[in-house]
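Checklist before submission:
- one chain only
- standard amino acids only
- sequence pasted in full

Submission:
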Amino acid sequence: MNFAAFKYKSPNFTKLKTYGFEQIGDIYSFTTNIFDGQFQMTVQIAHDGSVKVDVLDIALGEPYTLHLVEEASGAFVGRVRSEFEAVLQSIADNCFERDVFKEPCAKAVIKYVTDTYGDELEFLWDKSPDGAIWRRKDNRKWYAVMMIISKRKLGLDSDEQTSVIDLRLDTVNDVNLVDGKRFFAGYHMNKRTWFTVCLDGSVSTQTICNLIDKSYILAKKK
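Returned file contents:
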């Protein structure tokens, strides 16, 4: 089951143990009581980051699931839901780390920028947790934007979600770069001065890193 608290995050297993999780094989398990001890809540986290949560009504010895029903209302179920979500949020805040862009190419690009420029992605928008930017340290101007979008938004015939990177366009030397197949008009940016590349392997990591270098230089000139 997917829970909002863990979206775009991956577990840090060392932190899970510090928090109180017990490792049982490949599963990390944590049990606590909620609602004044009337319910027992068990959170299990697998190595792939998947999360399983069970709530047991201690008095009845039966699973309790009403808090998972969106239409369920009332003070009782509302309190159970609130305490349930608070436990998950605490675990997410203390034991998980941000992990938005998961494709191998995306991870390689992030490592390249960190190693080359010492810059970390900045997640600026609470309402868009899957969007982040890199900017130069000297003039604070952006040289790259990373997002997760549907390929259809780039004009492709697919609803597949993919990580993309927006980069500054060299309008003098690369005016014909945008081809609508591998390189696209800048998504959510000025289409005359930015372009977009999918980080799905359609363009080599080395090519993208070279384009990041050019974008970095262009951000200095602006």
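Reviewer check: The longest helix spans residues 75-95.
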